[in-house]
Design brief:
Helix content of chain A: 10-25%
Largest interface: A-B, 14 and 24 residues
Low-confidence stretches of chain B: none
Number of helices of chain A: 2
Structural class of chain B: alpha/beta
Radius of gyration of chain A: 17 Å
Radius of gyration of chain B: 21 Å
Number of strands of chain B: 16
Shape of chain A: elongated
Oligomer: heterodimer
Number of helices of chain B: 13
Helix content of chain B: 25-40%
Structural class of chain A: alpha+beta
Number of strands of chain A: 5
Mean pLDDT of chain A: 95
Order of helices and strands of chain A: EEHEEHE
C-alpha cells in the first residue's frame, strides 16, 4: 500500500492476531499425552499465547495455528504429559 | 467581546503559567512525574485538583516512562492529554516519545529545559530536547512567560488538528523561564475553550469496538508510516500559521514561527532560540543605536523547521551567527547551526556561518556577551571562529 492509503498511526481493527498464523515459527511442537494429562490447566495458565484451548469438561488441546513452539507448557506440566516433538 | 474584557493581569512563574493554561484548556488527563525545574507545574496542577479547580483526571505515576505511557493510553481514547518533564525525565521518556508520535496522538508536553547528567546539574540548556530532536514531536521554544502561557494553549489546537495529529513539546529554559516571575495577561476561559473546541480523532479506543493503535509493521509498510509523519510535519507549518492567526483574533497576541529583528538590513544576523532571543535583541538594539547594523532571528518553531521563512530572513546579511545552547559532541557544530548551514546550502547561498555554542549547563548569556559575539563577527570570521565555545573557561 502507498503511504496515502495506510491508516495513520498504524490503527487497525482489534483481534487481528487471530488471523495471523504463526505455526511456521515452530521448531518443536507440543504433543499432549492424554493418558497422563490430569486436566490441571497449568499449561492453559502459563501459555503466553492463547494456544492452549480449554474444552468443556476441562480437556485441553493445542491450537497449532497460534502455538509458536516455545515449550513453556512442557516445562510447566506437573505430570509431564506434554512432550516437544521436532516438526517434520 | 472586546479584547480588553478577555484580559486579567497576573505575576506568574513560567511553570505556573503552564499549569494555569492547562487548567483553562479543558484537559481531561494529566499524567506527570515531578522533576526540577518542572516541579511547580505538577505541584500546581495537583493543587488545582485538590481545590476542585481542575476537573480533569490527575494520574500520579512512579516515573516519566509511566507518565508518557499513561498519556499514550489516555490520548488514544480521544481525551485531551497533558504532561510535563525535563532533562533526565525526558530522556527516560525517550522510547514513549516515538510511540506517541507514531500512533499520531496529540499529546501536549511542557519541557522545562535542563542539561543532562553527568555531571548532575539542575540548570538550563537545550540538550534534553535536542537529544530527542528527531522523535516526531512538534517542538516550540518560548522566550518569555506570557509566550509560555499562550503557546501552551496554541499547542493543543495545533496538535489536535486533523491535518496534524502529532504531539507537541513546548520548551522553555529551566529556572531562567520556569521560575522567573513575569507579568502575564491571562485570558478568560470561555474564549480559550471556544478557540480549542474538543479533540475529534478519527479513531479512539472503545471497549465496544476494539482497535489496535501502533500495530506491528513490516519492512513492507514501516517506511510508509514514517512518510505520513513527515508529510504531517510539512502540513504543520501551514496549520501553525492558522492557529496563530485564530489565537490572535481573541487574544491580540501573535509571535510567528520566527521573530525577526532588523533582518532586512543587518550585515551580521544572529540566529538563536529560547529565552536568550530577547537578550540578544537588546544587545543588537544597543549596537545599532551606536551606528552598527546587526539583526536577530529568533526561531520559535523548531520542528517542523520553517526553512523557507528562515531563508527569507537570511538573504540580506553578509555573515550569519548561529547560537546553540546544546552541544552535539563530536559534530562540527550544534543542531541549529547544522540546520542553518543545510538551509543555506539547499538554497545555493554561500555565506560565512559563525557557529557559537553558549549557555551550557545554565551558564549565563548577558547583553554584553551578545555585543562581544556580534563584535567577533564584525570583520569577517577569524581563524577558529567557525565553531566557537563561547564563555567556556579557558
Amino acid at each position: 500500500l502507498s503511504w496515502k492509503e495506510l491508516e495513520e498511526g498504524a490503527v487497525v481493527k482489534g483481534g487481528t492476531s487471530v488471523s495471523y498464523i504463526v505455526s511456521g515459527w515452530r521448531v518443536n511442537r507440543p504433543v499432549i499425552n492424554e493418558a497422563k494429562c490430569t486436566n490441571c490447566l497449568i499449561c492453559w495458565i502459563y501459555c503466553p499465547e492463547p494456544a492452549i484451548v480449554r474444552h468443556e469438561g476441562g480437556k485441553v488441546t493445542i491450537d497449532y495455528d497460534h502455538c509458536k513452539g516455545c515449550g513453556i507448557c512442557e516445562a510447566e506440566c506437573p505430570p509431564k504429559a506434554i512432550a516437544m516433538v521436532k516438526e517434520q | 467581546m472586546t479584547l480588553a474584557q478577555t484580559v486579567r493581569v497576573a505575576a506568574l512563574q513560567g511553570d505556573e503559567a503552564v499549569a494555569e493554561a492547562v487548567r483553562q484548556c479543558d484537559v481531561d488527563v494529566v499524567a506527570a512525574y515531578p522533576i526540577t525545574p518542572q516541579t511547580i507545574i505538577v505541584e500546581k496542577l495537583a493543587e488545582f485538583v485538590a481545590d476542585g479547580r481542575f476537573a480533569g483526571e490527575f494520574v500520579p505515576v512512579e516515573s516519566e516512562h509511566s507518565a508518557l505511557s499513561a498519556c499514550v493510553g489516555a490520548s488514544a481514547t480521544g481525551a485531551r492529554v497533558f504532561t510535563a518533564t525535563s532533562s533526565q525525565g525526558l530522556a527516560y521518556m525517550h522510547e514513549m516519545l516515538y510511540n506517541a508520535s507514531g500512533m499520531r496522538l496529540p499529546i501536549v508536553m511542557a519541557v522545562a529545559n535542563r542539561a543532562l547528567s553527568a555531571p548532575l546539574v539542575l540548570n538550563a540548556d537545550h540538550s534534553d530536547m535536542m537529544g530527542s530532536r528527531d522523535c516526531g514531536w512538534i517542538q516550540v521554544y518560548a522566550e518569555n512567560v506570557e509566550e509560555i502561557y499562550d503557546r501552551t494553549i496554541q499547542m493543543f489546537k495545533l496538535s489536535e488538528d486533523p491535518r496534524v495529529m502529532l504531539p507537541s513539546a513546548l520548551n522553555f529554559e529551566g529556572f531562567i523561564l520556569s521560575h522567573d516571575k513575569e507579568r502575564v495577561r491571562l485570558l478568560e476561559e470561555a474564549p480559550i475553550r471556544n478557540f480549542l473546541g474538543r479533540p475529534r480523532p478519527k479513531y479512539r479506543l472503545d471497549p465496544d469496538a476494539p482497535m489496535t493503535f501502533g500495530a506491528i509493521a513490516t519492512p513492507d509498510s514501516y517506511y510508509e508510516f514514517r512518510m505520513q509523519q513527515a508529510e504531517a510535519m510539512k502540513a504543520t507549518l501551514g496549520v501553525f500559521e492558522e492557529v496563530e492567526r485564530d489565537f490572535e483574533k481573541f487574544s491580540g497576541r501573535r509571535y510567528g514561527a520566527v521573530d525577526a529583528y532588523n533582518t532586512d538590513r543587518a550585515d551580521r544576523l544572529m540566529v538563536i532560540n529560547g529565552s536568550a532571543g530577547g537578550t540578544m535583541r537588546a544587545a543588537a538594539r544597543a549596537l545599532n543605536a551606536a551606528g552598527e547594523n546587526v539583526g536577530v532571528l529568533a526561531i520559535k518553531l523548531y520542528r517542523p523547521f520553517p526553512v523557507d521563512e528562515v531563508l527569507s530572513h537570511l538573504s540580506r546579511c553578509k555573515t550569519v551567527i548561529t547560537m546553540d545552547r546544546s552541544i552535539s559532541l563530536g559534530a562540527q557544530s550544534g543542531p541549529i547551526s547544522e540546520d542553518i548551514k543545510s538551509a543555506l546550502l539547499g538554497a545555493g547561498e554561500n555565506k560565512p556561518v559563525m557557529s557559537v555554542t553558549y549557555g551550557i549547563g545554565g551558564r549565563d548569556l548577558l547583553i554584553d556577551d551578545g555585543k562581544k559575539i556580534f563584535g567577533m563577527a564584525k570583520d569577517g570570521l577569524q581563524d577558529g571562529a567557525g565553531n566557537m565555545m563561547y564563555g567556556v573557561k579557558g
